[in-house]
Design goal:
By secondary structure, the chain is an alpha/beta fold. It has 10 helices and 11 strands.
Length: about 280
């Protein structure tokens, strides 16, 4: 996964910085509806781009539709080089509820709606949000391949997959990214990450700070943070960046202050001894 920028990674034929932004939290409570302060959400998204972040991750189900709509309102026409990754395959019957629907017709409809909300003719990275046990993976990815052939998708990624599902997906379509739950405290996708690192597939960890739970941990994490005059969250994000060269954390927030704190973690260098202490 060679690139001329030491702080960058290649996803397909796109080069982006290794710290992205997850746009789930710009919605309302329960990832539902409008944010409590729409102007603040718009200002945050603009600040993200002003600070040089060039990968924004969203999904049609965030709101639903709200996150994508806000991204377009804040940033369209988009600056050159900005990659917007979105997803389809989950539907929302209400706040904090997520239902799987990866039928081809649903995915085609979801993609078309995302294109309209984002004001795009082509989505740079479209990810299957999950694997639907009721729908053959070949059918779900087949729909995304059709959309790719039609010029509506540039690259295909998968999310919430195990190693076997990733292997199957790669036989069916050119997969350039995986987005799984992963953090310092939750390493259940170690096997998938190792495959991605071996084969140059970008890995976008969601829930990279375990919704703040990591920041409340003491022990080695707190000690290392104090040594660096950093926060535990920054150390946890720095650990992710050290874990594998294909790692692209996408921490999300609704606060500019918190965003700036997360972004600063990219400049935090952990020693071999510190990495060993964190395990």
């Amino acid at each position: 996964m060679a690139t001329t920028r030491p702080d960058a990674i290649t996803i397909g034929d796109m080069t982006v910085g290794r710290m992205g932004f997850g746009a789930m939290r710009v919605t309302g409570r329960g990832v539902w509806g409008e944010p409590p302060d729409r102007a603040a959400a718009i200002a945050l998204l603009r600040r993200v781009v002003e600070r040089g972040v060039d990968l924004i991750d969203t999904a049609d189900s965030y709101g639903p539709g709200t996150s994508e709509t806000l991204i377009a309102e804040a940033l369209h026409p988009y600056p050159e080089g900005l990659v917007i990754a979105t997803k389809g395959g989950l539907t929302r019957p209400g706040p904090d509820r997520w239902d799987t629907d990866c039928r081809p017709a649903q995915l085609r409809q979801a993609c078309e709606a995302s294109l309209k909300r984002l004001k795009l003719e082509r989505i740079d990275l479209y990810q299957l949000h999950t694997v639907d046990p009721r729908v053959p993976l070949a059918d779900s990815l087949g729909a995304l391949l059709e959309l790719r052939q039609q010029g509506k998708i540039r690259h295909i990624g998968v999310s919430n997959v195990g190693a076997r599902e990733l292997a199957q997906a790669r036989k069916l379509a050119p997969i350039v990214s995986v987005q799984n739950r992963y953090s310092l405290g939750d390493r259940g996708s170690d096997g998938v990450l190792d495959v991605c690192a071996r084969d140059g597939i970008a890995f976008l960890p969601w829930f990279p700070l375990a919704a703040g739970a990591l920041t409340r941990r003491g022990g080695k994490l707190a000690e290392i943070a104090e040594r660096h005059r950093a926060t535990p969250a920054q150390v946890a994000l720095a650990w992710l960046l050290h874990r594998a060269p294909v790692m692209v954390p996408i921490p999300g927030t609704s606060s500019i202050e918190h965003f700036e704190e997360n972004l600063a973690a990219a400049g935090l260098a952990l020693s071999d001894a510190e990495l060993a202490a964190l395990g």
